[in-house]
Amino acid sequence: MQLNWTAEAIMNITIGGVLMYGTLISLRSYAPAKLRALLYFRLYWACGAFFYLFEGLSYLFMNPFLSGISVMTTFGFAVFLTVAIGYTSKESYTPIILIVIFSAGAILAYLAFQPGASVPELVTGHLSLTWAGYVKVVGNAFIYFAAFYYFIWIVRIRKNAPFEVKQEANILLLGAIFITPVTITIYNFYFLFHILIYPANIFFSLGILITIFIINREPKLLFILPFTPHQVIVKDRRSTILVEHTWSQLETGERLFSHIFPTTLHPPEGKRISSKISEISFEEGILIFYESDLVICGLILSRSSKFIKDLLKRFANEFEERFEKILKDPEKTLSDFEPAKELIEKYFSIFPHRIIDNQRHPLYISKEYYQLPPEIDEKLKKILKDEAEYARVKCEIQRSQDKLKALEFLEVYEELELEPGEEFDNEREKDEGSSREAKD
Amino acid sequence: MEAEAQYIPQILAIAEELISRNLVLDAKRLYYEVKRRIPIERKVLLRLIQSLMEKRILIEGTKLTKDLVLANSHRKQIYKYITSHIGTHFSTIKERYKGSTGSPGQLIWHLEVLVKFEFIRRMKYKRYTLFLPFEFPEEVAIEYFLLRNELNRKILNIIIKEGTVSISVLLKSLGWSRDKVKYRINLLVSENILALQEGNNQVVCMNSERRDEILELFNKVNTQGGQ
Questions:
Q1: Using one digit for the tens of pLDDT, what is the confidence trace for B94-151?
Q2: Is B137's Cβ below 8 Å from some Cβ in A?
Q3: H helices, E strands: number in chain A
Q4: Complete DSSP assignment for A274-311
Q5: Considering only CA atoms, which of A17, A23, A145, A133 is closest in space to residue A67?
Q6: Measured torsion, CA atoms of residues A341, A343, A349, A354, in degrees rounded to the nearest 10
Q7: Which of B117, B18, B129 is closest to B71 using CA atoms?
Q8: Which chain A residues contact residue B50 at CB under 8 A?
Q9: Which of A361, A369, A422 sits opposite B60 (nearest CB)?
Q10: How many degrees, rounded to 5, is the angle at CA A158 between CA A154 and CA A163?
């Protein structure tokens, strides 16, 4: 059998192989965490890889069946992307879009393997197998839909990305630009200049590779949109905070958490507290908490999800298991729970930090750390004897950004403190007058 | 972690330097400035800055602007007092707010803030420091100050009642020394509140050109209870 070794066949097979390799090695470290969103994305990328592989093989063998499989991968493309975005954003599967995709896909599945679904064609002087008729329309529609849906989603991620992952979000957007605007624009002119299929394929595969690379490097990008995590707090049953970690500021969080649980919550002797997970909604978000025998773990975030609850439960269980002896020790100290930061990193590393949220928000150094020149500082302390007064003045000096200067204040102070009162002047004049009269 | 902690003093030093250069310190500026000066990994630096903010060593805050100056209740009280007691001087304010605004140092701080943010002005008159609303004319503020003085008011009360009065009559009525009376009258004449009769500098009366104006000021000051 003669193989049709064309540039396009070689290119497609190569791209397919590279994409498949990238898909397989990506995010392996997250497999134990069983993050379903990542599974869906890997399936989406795998469909992309299969698309190129089967396209290439169909050109190589001039086999319509293989061409049919390649067009069906576009259906997989569209399905898994929709599922991945829907699940990551809302933990749901956007049924309406899926109904449309499955309906079109069902018809495509029948027609893709009918005679005439793909026809031989000369492309850039070489024989190639291209989709025809309805198969071409639906196949291309799936590709266009996936490309634009993906692009819009990435733009939203980039827009909402916190400072911590802004750089990675920019790279992700670059990949999306390659996949959608660049590839689609070039591909639209393919019908006029068939040679444009090469740059279109190159940009598309580059875009996918960039995406695989950057999401592998920073999976937090996938969790920017669904919710904003604020804080995780672990307390013992005496309501002592053992561990605390903040992703973004929320004033009410800790107060809310404290308000819910009374000061002493020892279970009655011999009785076990049945572990349970609950949630409370409030204006700024949701508090999810998990109670067990020894600890209460609370997670404050903008939205709840089954995935988050499961994460919290697993975190709490491992925390209790790892620190059981220390928790039962009445002499325990907070420093005993320092290693808990590793656990937080293990379970909640997918949450990007938003503490540097408004990166243009002015920052100040707290009064304990803000230093004035020692001589000035000493004088200020003498003048402003009260600690709170002194701290307030230091804070205002910082916040005024050079409008208020400690040195100028000290000069004014020295001047005003020496100023006599009017009563002094009045009395002085009276005394001078009396003494002059006495002389007279 | 310990290796990373060694960068914290350097980061804080850079933050202080940025503040002292009157630049707005924000996370982005701090990040880029530290990155420029210290060979530190991006993720590590972000983690350290986040840790400093979590521990509230670096605090998000607002610049102290004119809108926020009067958010301090003591300062607002002082400002209200100055605007309703034009030409008041420091000792009076100090006496008025003894204890309530904290130490005298704190009072002077509040006054300094009000001056710097152009709510009030400070001016020197003789040996006194007067405080007045920012756009208030200085000459009028001096008149208010003089009319608040107990001794000046006694003189004016007599002149307003009698019209034109000789210095000897004033001496008799007030029971003060000649020097004292002359000093006070010269002061009031120099500020155009009183005038010496033409051809006879032993007789004094209100400045006829400004009589109504001065009477109005005098009555206002009386309503406010002098000091």
A1: 888 876 767 888 899 999 999 999 999 999 988 889 999 999 999 899 999 999 888 8
A2: no
A3: 16, 8
A4: PPEEEEEEETTEEEEEEE-SSEEEEEEESS--HHHHHH
A5: A133
A6: -40
A7: B117
A8: 164, 353, 355-356
A9: A361
A10: 150
A63 three-class SS: coil
Work out the pLDDT band at A264, boundaries 50, 70, 90: very low
Going A17 to A18 to A19 to A23, the CA torsion angle's sign is positive
A433 touches chain B (CB under 8 A): yes
Q: Report chain B's terminal Cα–Cα distance, integer Å.
A: 63
Give start and end residues of each alpha helix (H) in B6-86. 8-20, 27-37, 42-54, 66-69, 73-84
Provide ipTM, 2 decimals. 0.81
- ∠A291-A294-A299 over CA atoms, to 5°? 40
DSSP-derived secondary structure letter, A164: G
In contact, B170 and B183? CB cutoff 8 Å: no
Say if the Cβ atoms of A386 and B106 lie within 8 Å: yes
* CA dist A428 → A343, A435, A438 (Å): 77, 11, 15
Q: What is the DSSP letter of B40?
A: -
Nearest C-alpha in A relative to B24: A362
Shortest Cα distance, chain A CAs vs residue B145, angstroms: 11
Give the strands of the sheet with B120-125, arranged side by side.
B88-89, B128-133, B120-125
A422–B149 CB contact, under 8 Å: yes
> Mutation test of the interface with chain A: which of B2, B43, B64, choosing the one with the most A Cβ atoms within 10 A?
B64
